[in-house]
Amino acid sequence: MSGNGIHDSLDSTTGKLTKLLAEDGYVAVDYIYPPTNSITALLRNKKDVLGFQNMLVDGSTIIAHSRFCRVVLKMLQKNTFETEIDDIYLIAPATKRAWNIPFTAFKKIRGDIIVIYNPHDLAILAGAMALFHPFGTAGRSGLKETHPKIKNYRWPSFEGKYNHSFFFNDDNIQDLKEFITGN
To answer: Whole-prediction pTM value?
Structure first.
């Protein structure tokens, strides 16, 4: 299961990764929602949390990018989902660093919450500094590790790279897929 940030096209981010995973025989599904901006993204959170959690099946691995990381974390915080999740990958999360996720939500995650971040991500920095922008800096430094299942991972190939969606470039997407699948 994957979800993208605020863009309406999946051709360059999680949809590109989902396509690669499907080509390798994985069951890969994207959560599609209408185009959003920083304000409508906040207004859509509740609807997207409900829509996304209704798509989950037991054993899902969740891959989220940018704004959609906030949706996944809100789902965990509300703890209204019924399924067991294998792993959660949060790629360049455009969200705050600290979340109050109940222990019972962590019990529904068999694996870990892996936060892939880039300290050079200028989009995250600009968004966190912008007035009336609802996002935070987790995409530059990871989440606060308030539970042993939260694992922050600084992507090693991003020194000097500033693009928020650099993870999905042709030079990196195969490495990202291998990191997620283990092969």
So the answer is: 0.88
